[in-house]
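Aim 2 progress update. The chain analyzed this quarter is reproduced below.
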Amino acid sequence: MISKVSVCLEVGPQAASAFAPEYPGCWVFGKTRESALQKERLAITEWVDLLKSYGESVPEISDDIEVEVAEMLRVDYNPVEAGKPEPVFWSEVVAITRDDITRTIRLMKHARSNLMADVVGIQKDYLDWEPPGKPRTIRNCLMHIAHVELWYINRLNIEWTAELPENPIELLDYSRDIALTSLENFPERKMKVVFQPRKYRSPVCNLWTARKVLRRLADHERLHPKYIENVPRHYTIWK
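Predicted structure tokens:
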């Protein structure tokens, strides 16, 4: 049996990204449109298996996944680069529900469990070692995850005033508390609003929706555990 999954693509001259609206947590990047779609197939299969291991109720999906491009944006920048523009897709304009928020919170907690399983017991030597040719140390990566989570919440024009912790684990806990509190208390009147963030405005696309934020919150943390897992292996080779 073939399982058909709708996918959104962001295609630039140097790379492409893909995500499946029905499978938040499966955001991938590839050097080409085709490689991104292939990675998306694998990501969906792995994510469904992981959700089942957490006892989540998920639709059965066959190993033979056929991805259908539902939306595609052609852009003139590299979708893989940090700090790139953040376009909004039509699938992200649909109003969210309280169930969407509840599901996103569960997915965020699963992603955090996976992340901390990789971080616990990491030697101090690994924490601040930057692999040759790679962009971040493990410490930088953890702080990046925390800062990005806060940034997504800020896209909904939600702000905070306390000083950010310098310890990466404390920062992760701090940003997660803000994210969960913001989602749990998110007003229904804003569930279908298109936001134009007041801070850190994008000159390319300064449009955000609650669905766009939920998708990014479920997706982003899932991008980094494999990188963190590989740092000790690189350390052993290079040292």
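The domain at 2-84 is CATH 3.30.160 (Double Stranded RNA Binding Domain). The chain has a mean pLDDT of 89. These observations will guide the mutagenesis experiments scheduled for the next reporting period.
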